[in-house]
Structure formats: C-alpha cells, structure tokens
Amino acid sequence: MYTRQPIVSVLGHVDHGKTTFLDRIRGGTVADREAGKITQHIGATEVPVDVLQAACSDLGCNLTFKLPGLLFIDTPGHHSFMTLRSRGGALADMAVLIVDIKEGFKPQTLESIEILRREKTPFIVGANKVDRIAGWNSQNKPFVKNFQEQTKGARNRMTDALYQLIGSFYDNGFSADRYDNIRDFTRNIAIVPLSAKTGEGIEDILLTLIGLAQTYLKGELIVEEGEGEGTILEVKEVTGLGTTLDTIVYQGIFRKGDEVVIGTHDQPLITKVKSLLKPKPLDEIRDPRERFDEVKEVYAAAGIKVVTPVAEGVMAGAPIKVIGGRDRKALMDMVMEESHPSIETEELGVIIRADAIGSIEGLASELKDRGIPISSAKIGDVAQKDIIEAATLNDPLYRVILAFNVNLLHDAEEYLENCDVEVFRREVVYQLVEDYDKWMEDRKVELENMRREKITHPGKLRILDDKIFRLSKPAIVGVRVLGGRIEVDQQLLKDDGRVVGSIKSIRSGEKSIDRAEQGEEVAVAITGVTVGRQIKGGEDLYINIPEGDARKLRDIELNFDENRILDEVREIKKKEKPFWGM
C-alpha cells in the first residue's frame, strides 16, 4: 500500500479564468523556477512535492510534506466534474472553484456549487482577477506578501469585493473567509485571492490544498498496489493511433498488455492495453506526433492516454478496470452497474439525455429534488426515436426531452417539426430544469384554457329594461353579464328550469364578438323567444350547462362568482333531478 496524490478538479463559470489558472499551474511561475518539474499529462497536470516545497519556501512556511504532490484534472468546468466518477461518486478528492472577484457568482458558479454540495466534495475558492481591481499592483508572488505592498485604497477595494463574494456564499448556505483568516477549515470555505494572469496567489492555492489534503484526506489517499482502476475522461481520435482513451487512474497499477473491462453504451467491453502513452515534460513538447512517450506501467493517481485494439461504444465517464486475478464475471457486472447508473424511472415523466454518466446522474438528481418524474434516461445525442418516444406519452406536460450538453441529430430535428414535443438543450443543469419549470407552468395555463374552452362555462346575464331592440326572430336585447361568461350558440336557462332559446350573436358597439365576460354590457340576439312571452326586461337568465360538463367543472379552478353561479344552476336542475351533476 502507498499514499497517492490527491486528485483536484477545477470548476467555475466560463471566462472566470479556469483555463488561465491551469495554464499558470502548468507553465507559469512555478515552472519558471523548476524547469521540467511539472509534467503535463493528457487530462491532468501533476505538481510534484519538490515544486510544492519550493512554493512553501516562498511563503515562509514550515509544512512537512507527507504527500507525493497534487494531480489537477485538466478539463476545467462543471461538465467534466460530473463526468469524473469513481464507483458512483465524485472522482476528485478536492476542488478549486474559480470565481471572478469583480463579477462574483454567475450561472455556472451556482451550478458548480450545487455539484460540489451534492457530491460532498471539499473545495477552496480562487478569487481570480485581483489584478483588475483599481490601483492593485499584481505581482508574481504569494498574495499574503503582495497584499502588504498595496496602497490602503487598493486594499480596501479588494476587501470590499471579497466581502461581496463572502456574502454570496452565505446566501448559498456556506460560511467563507479569506484563507489566512481561517482557523477551522472544517467550518469555513477558504477563499484565496489570486491573479492567474500574473501568478499572484498561486503558491497560496497550492499550499492551502496540500495542507487541507494532508490534514483531512490522508486516510482516503492510501491505495493498494493491485489491479488498476480508472475513469475515462474523453474518447479521442488521434492520427496514427486511432481511438484513444484519456484516463484518470485512481487505484492500483495499469501495465501494458493488461486485460481490461471498459464500460460502453451497451455491454462491457473486454480488451487489452495495447500501449500506455504519457506526454513528454512540458518544456520538450514540440510536434504533436512526437508528444507522447510510451511507458510500461502507471501508478495511481495519474493521467494517461490508453490505447486499446477495440474501443467501440466507450463513453466519457465510463470505468476501466484491470482484470488481473479478479473474477471476470463479477468485474463485468460491476462495470455494467457503474456504466449504467440506476435512475428511478416512471411510466409517465420527462425524457433526459446527457453527454456522460455523471451528467445523467446530476440531471436526474436535480429533477428528483424538484419532484419531476423521469420516464427515460440515456447517454448520447437526441435521436429521432427519442422524439417518437416522447410523442407517445399520454400527458402533454411530459412530452419533453431535457438534453444536457448533447446535440439534436438531423433526423430528430426534422421529425420534431411535425410533432407536439419540446426539446430543451442547455449546458447548465439548473438552467435546463428552470427552462422546463417555466414552460410547464405556461403550458398548464394553456391546457387549462383549452379545456375550459371545450366545457360549457358558468354564466349569468340580466336583460336590461331600456335596451329592448327587437322582440323576436331573433329577439335583440341589451344585457349585462353578472358573472362568468356568455358565448355564441349557448342555450339560456330560466330560474324555473325551462330552457329558452339560444344566443345567436353578440355585439359590442359595432363589433361582433364570440364571448362576453363578467361586467360587460353587450347586445345579444336570442333565437326561439319573444320578449314579453318567454323572456322579459329585467329578468336574469343562466347559461344552460350540460350535466356532464357540470361534473367536469369540479376539476377546474373557478372563481368565487363562477362557483356561485354553478351552485345556482345545480339548485335549479335538482328540482327535476335530485342528484343532477353529482
């Protein structure tokens, strides 16, 4: 058994400096002082212990190093974090959340925080771009040293921006403070002001990470020198190599020639490791064709490019495990389970599609938290068969596909034009769910209006004494709508239970209309009646409601006056049929 280096993921909003931060880690200030000491791997950047010791000396600390270094996952963003899984949980041991100190929280910042919270991943915050604070003189040195050299005004402006950030964390349920003010790191999120552009604060970040890892994660970093296990970061086509698997090794050893089980879209794939490729040190990278060195074995934790004879169906986030002396069937079952997460589905619910295993789990978790059922969950682009599947769902509120970070294929796009299915596509999970929530609320109102249109609605009118325009054939009278609404072709009901005539037309001024609402005064033409015989001025009449519609109205939200009118109609009808409308 041995102690591996912690795996550190970098997350944050677009343009807040994640890539610049990692570029600085790879080849900035530290690399300048320690030429060739930082090795860039595919999908990962290793910071070995001697580089950390050099950073520590810059800060004047006396930390004893017990870990071999840090392994940064070199695919910044919350998508990658969700892709990186280890036995159903987050692969990263720790994370750095990069936030622009002036812009503060943005959509992907919030998304990243929710992911970290859900996965219970410890993290620190890099408050980036302090160099943009007015009057701040950013230099390639530790933040705590550079802070003392700033003017009072610049320090105050930086502190004000930092307090805004601390307030945002508080609003999201976290206690946070500048890292050098914290005594108990289990209760507070450490914020390290930095400039990825100039290198200021990089040492502070590295030492905070290694200090926290050695204090709180040491037991979790002890691994066995057994069969290797890893997670596929990306599946890439490389000229001269074919399909390659960018892999993070988090357990054991991978050797050239090892037989491995890999997760795919379908059944697990058994193949062999044809070669293990590792980039040359950063300062030697020239022609990409000469970029990789072939190695015989790799120990966890590491980033490596794996080449296998077969890689069909392998997907991002899938596990890769060395068989070795382990039970082949049991290992295949394990890989199958990890490659196809168990997501609770129901007969009726939305369809979800995502780019990776972790993404589908994250989206499903967010929907579950909001009480939104799922009928189907798969990894991959949205195809025509997905549109057809959604179109067959009985409830129009669930004829929806939520697509996270995937494409809408051409055949699906064409088919979508002719069917009642909505597809929402986003690269931020909570925004995707919010889009659906808003659409669903609007759709509910639309469906309710459509349903109300088809059902005879309660309505009551009064014939105005001074507005008798024609006595018959048809009778034309002025009326006031006392409640509900009246519509063309509806029958009229007297309070003695008799049905007298029907509304032929409605006019408001010179305009013909189909409907009049409560409070409106309009002229109506009524067929089948004569004023003075069947109806008279000053009389109240009701819209005649069929018994079936009266039952359906119980499931529709009516206002106070509509309910009162419906009750009055029920009482009139019950004189002849005691259980009418029940």
Give a written overview of the molecule.
The protein is of the alpha+beta class and 582 residues long. The chain has 4 domains: 220 residues, P-loop containing nucleotide triphosphate hydrolases (Rossmann fold); 111 residues, Elongation Factor Tu (Ef-tu), domain 3 (Beta Barrel); 105 residues, Translation initiation factor IF- 2, domain 3 (Rossmann fold, 3-Layer(aba) Sandwich), CATH 3.40.50.10050; 116 residues, Translation factors (Elongation Factor Tu (Ef-tu), domain 3). Helices cover 30% and strands 30% of the residues. Helix 10 links the parallel strand 23 and strand 24. About 3% of the residues have low confidence.
Summary tags:
4 domains; 30% strand; eight-stranded antiparallel sheet; Elongation Factor Tu (Ef-tu), domain 3; single chain; Rossmann fold; alpha+beta; 582 residues
Blueprint of the fold:
Blueprint: E1 2-3, E2 7-12, H1 18-27, H2 29-33, E3 39-41, E4 44-48, H3 49-59, E5 69-73, H4 78-83, E6 85-86, E7 89-90, E8 94-100, H5 107-119, E9 123-128, H6 143-147, H7 152-171, E10 176-178, E11 189-193, H8 202-216, E12 222-223, E13 229-238, E14 242-251, E15 253-255, E16 259-262, E17 269-272, E18 275-279, E19 292-295, E20 297-299, E21 302-307, E22 319-322, H9 328-339, E23 350-354, H10 357-369, E24 374-379, H11 384-391, E25 400-404, H12 410-416, E26 422-426, H13 429-454, E27 459-470, E28 475-487, E29 491-493, E30 499-508, E31 511-513, E32 515-517, E33 521-527, E34 540-543, H14 547-552, H15 560-574
